[in-house]
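Changelog-adjacent note: as of this version, every example in the card shows the full chain rather than a window. The one below runs 120 residues end to end.
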Amino acid sequence: MTMAQDTTAILDVWGQTLTIVRKTPTYSDTGMATMVWAAVTTATGDIQPFSGAERRDVGGEIVLTTHEIYLPNGTDVRGGDRVRPAGWVAGDDEYEVRELRAETPSHIQINATLVRGHGG
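Full-length structure tokens:
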């Protein structure tokens, strides 16, 4: 088995279905754009709590990482997206992608921040 196959096999057993959502414009009949969270893709992944890492971003913003998320290599995900666990409904917690830390032949490792439940 290759490393990529090993990771896929591990995620099949330990992972859960995750939905990646991204801010996307939708247009009213008058052409007015409204930004909404729209599903980009689903993937089997694993969310792990992280003891926390803090760093200063451009402009002095403090970035806090609370979780690491592992997804199969090639999953359509980028900074600013949100990851929702299976069964997510408006008001549940979700995870904001802060950065893609590593892309290996087998998986993508993401630093994420827990976003406490909101209206959707």
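Structural remarks: The chain has a mean pLDDT of 82.
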